[in-house]
Write a structure and sequence with these properties.
single chain; 82 residues; alpha+beta; Alpha-Beta Plaits; 4-stranded antiparallel β-sheet; 2 helices; 4 strands; elongated; ACT-like_dom_sf; ACT domain-containing protein
Length: 82
């Protein structure tokens, strides 16, 4: 399973994401870049995840949607590693 995350950069965002994903993150890559028009700092991350056993993909998706809302970021979750 993999996830792509992006949103406006801010202090502590890596800490918040790694804390939220600590039970399932296997690999986390992050980058901060400037948006073309405004120059604002955009945070992007890619994560390889190994979710806890016996949890359905729909449950994981719902948890990630809540995380995205709480952190005001966008998350794309993929069932297989692509």
């Amino acid at each position: 399973m993999s996830a792509e995350l992006f949103g406006q950069d801010r202090p502590g965002i890596v800490r918040e994401i790694s804390r939220a994903l600590s039970d399932s993150v296997q690999k986390l890559q992050t980058i901060v870049e400037s948006t073309p028009m405004s120059g604002e700092r955009l945070f992007r991350a890619e994560a390889d995840l190994v979710p806890p056993a016996r949890i359905e993909f729909d449950q994981i998706r719902a948890a990630f949607e809540q995380l995205a809302n709480d952190m005001m970021i966008d998350i794309t979750l993929k069932a297989g590693k692509e």
